[in-house]
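Task card 7
Instruction: Convert sequence to structure tokens.
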Amino acid sequence: MHSGLVEGVLRGRELRYAIDAVVLLAGIPGAGKSTFLRRVFTGADQVRVYDSERIRNRWAPTLGFMPYAWWRPFVHLVYYVTVLSGMRRGTGPMVVHDCATRPWVRQLLGRRARRAGRPVHLILLDVPDEVARDGQWARGRVVRSGSMATHCRRWPEVLARAAEDPGYVVPGAASALTLTRGEADRITRIQFG
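Output:
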């Protein structure tokens, strides 16, 4: 477990961040981000959790008759607009699910958080490529091989840069915590305040 926690503190099985923090939960597709979020946030928490899977599920009854590849860009657009509009000063903590392998998205999230005066912290779920592929098959949604290869090629640099300087990965990020699947499974709660 590697950490450069500034405000985030790991206490046993719990992570703690400031009340106004934006936590970016990152990892390649299939790393277990959605599973981690469902386990750590039960719904009773006063935390806004953003996961593109929720947008996809909301639109599936309307657009699901088409192949997902056709409406994926729409889902991503709605997701990022929702995240960015929710990132305002004084709106409480938020957790954002993203692969973090797209530099333009990282720049956008970091700049928006900075404008809102909110600290950003990274949690990076690091799993081997084959484990992520198995995770995709288990959830029933497999990323195209070319796209997955791009994520996998970029991910080691994201990890290395986050260890050196989290602010390189997401502008203004104060800390980065890298977790293996086993380490992530031992986290039971993320608390803010």
